[in-house]
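Possible regression after last week's pipeline update?

I re-ran a chain I had predicted before the update to compare outputs. Posting the input and the new output here so someone can diff against the archived version. Not blocking, just want to make sure nothing changed silently.
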Amino acid sequence: MINHLLALALLGVDCVVRAWRIQLVTWTAGGRLSFGDAFRLNLYGEAASQLTPNRLGGEPARFLGLTEAGLRPVTGIVAIGVEVACEWPVFLLAGAALFAYYVPDWRDAARTWLHRHRAGELVTVEIIALIVLVTAYLLQRLARAGFIRHRVRRQWRVAWAHVRRAPRWALGAGALLTVVSIVARALILPALAWGMPGRPPFAEMFYGALALLHAPLVVPLPSGGGGLEVAFLNGFAGDFGARQVTMLLLWRFYTAILLTGLGVYALVRSIGYRAAVEVFKIGWGKRREAQ
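New output (post-update):
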C-alpha cells in the first residue's frame, strides 16, 4: 500500500508544480490564472500529448485551456513560449545525464569516431548546415512576400519579444519547477518497487524511467506506440523478475493512463465530444497526407 501512496504523492507533486509553472509564466506574460484553471489545462495537455503522435497535441490543448480561462490569445502564446523556454534547457540537461549514464565511455568512442570518419561525415554536416540556412532564408522570404499572414507574424513577434524580456529569475524558477516535475515522475517507478525483494538498482530504474518517459518525443506513435512497453519488458528500466508485467502495468497507469483518463473526461465535459476529437486528431492528418 505504501508503494501506491508514494506513487500518488509523486504524481501529485508533478501536477502541482506544473500548475505553479504555468501560473508563473502566465503572470510573466501579463495575465492571471487560477490554480484550478492551471491544473485543468495541464490535464488537457497530458491527454492530448498521450493520444497524438510525437505529443503534438499537448501545446494546442493547453493553449485551449488558457483561452478557456479568459486569457487573450497573444497572452496564451507568450505564456506557452516562456514555458518552453524554461523547459528545453532542462530537457537538454536530462538528455546529457542520460547520455553520460548509458554511454560512460563516450569520450573514447568520440575519439575513435573522429579518427575513422573524416571527409564523408564533414560533407554531411556541411550539407545539413546548408539546408538549415536555406530553409531559414526561404521562411524569411515567404514572410516578407505575404505568404504567412501578417496577423500571425505580428502575434509571434510579440510573443518572442515577451519571451526575450521575461525576467531571468522567472525563467530560472520555471526551470527549477521543471526539474522537480521531471524528477518526481521518474521516481514513480522506484517508489512502486520500494521494499520489493531483489529489486533493480535505483539508478537503473530512475534513468530507465526518465528515458522512457521522454521517448514519445521522438517515437512517432502516440504514447510511444508500444515501443515503451517492449523496452520495459526487456529490462530497460530494470529486471523485476516474475513481476515484470505487473510493474509495467502499474507504472504505465500512474505515469500515463490515470492523467490521460482525467484529461479526456475534463476536455469532453468542457468543450464536447466532437471538439475534443478534433484536438486528439492533431498530428494524424499530416501523417496520412505524407503516406
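Follow-up from reviewer: compared with the archived run. The chain has one domain: 2-104+167-290. Marking as no regression found.
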